[in-house]
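To: structure desk
From: M.T.
Subject: fold request, one chain
Message: Could you run this one when you get a chance? Sequence is below, nothing fancy, just the single chain.
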Amino acid sequence: MKTYQLMGIDTAIHLLRPGAKWEWTGGLGFTRWDDPRPAPSVEEVMYTIEKIKELEDAVPTILLPEQQAAFQAYVEQIEKANAA
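Reply: Done. Structure tokens follow.
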């Protein structure tokens, strides 16, 4: 199992429009965009997230046993919440 450190909307938007001020609401995309550059599309953001994920998947991360246990507990918590 892989833990992603960089993958996320914040990182993707920072890569696409460094320094932009914005707010993002789930699947709605941007609810505020305060930057003179055009806001990236939801598709651009998702594409960038996939590229970040590809990079992180290519890095041979080695977790300590306690890190792996903490991550496994986190995954189980999410799965339990999704099942409810």
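Reply (cont.): Residues 9-83 form one domain. Let me know if you need anything else for the meeting.
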